[in-house]
Design goal:
Elements: H1 2-6, E1 10-13, H2 36-48, E2 51-54, H3 56-62, E3 77-81, H4 92-95, E4 103-104, E5 110-111, E6 116-121, H5 126-134, E7 138-142, E8 144-145, E9 148-149, H6 151-160, E10 165-168, H7 172-176
Parallel strand pairs: 1-10, 2-3, 2-10, 3-6, 6-7
Antiparallel strand pairs: 4-5, 8-9
Length: 177
């Protein structure tokens, strides 16, 4: 109903936190805080949403695949925020082919392909965009605010693609945003 009413996806924030409220060590290293049951639940969540979203730091430090295990009929989009367009092209999100060709719903938007969507600001050079596009990455150019992509604009653009639910698996900065 939120998506139908506002044209923007419903966001679900998922993170693991230790009893003392930490999500990483003092040096920023993430650790396994959860057990196997929690990780299985996270993969169930991934299969239920249209997209899984991470920020630049999580993409760079963890190089996550963002796929659900075991894979089933539904493959969420893998969305990465990269305002400056500086993430290495060697990341799995840019290197690994998406799981299947994007499908079009009868009303037009893409859905369920496992394709990577890279959200960049308007200041990213065209040459960088061409390199990402050549790898099969779907690009969204969003407004920026304070050097970061504007999350409200990102929500509108994801909604325009027909994405109604997004699981956010970023770190503290993205979660706080």
């Amino acid at each position: 109903f939120f998506f139908r009413d506002r044209g923007m996806p419903w966001f679900v924030l998922k993170w693991a936190m230790s009893l003392d409220g930490k999500i990483a060590t003092a040096r920023g290293e993430s650790q396994w805080i959860t057990g196997e049951a929690a990780r299985r639940h996270a993969h169930q969540l991934r299969r239920r949403v249209d997209a899984v979203l991470v920020g630049t730091s999580t993409a760079r430090l963890d190089d996550p695949s963002l796929g659900a295990r075991p894979p089933r009929a539904r493959f969420p989009f893998r969305v990465v925020l990269d305002a400056s367009g500086r993430l290495p092209l060697s990341l799995g999100l840019f290197r690994e082919p998406f799981l299947r060709a994007p499908q079009r719903r009868p009303d037009g938007p893409l859905h369920g392909s496992g394709q990577t969507i890279c959200v960049v600001s308007r200041r990213v050079p065209p040459r960088r965009l061409e390199r990402l596009h050549a790898r099969g990455v779907h690009l969204l150019r969003a407004a920026s605010r304070g050097g970061l992509v504007d999350l409200r604009d990102v929500a509108r653009r994801l909604g325009a693609l027909g994405i109604s639910q997004v699981l956010v698996e970023g770190g503290g900065r993205l979660g706080g945003s």
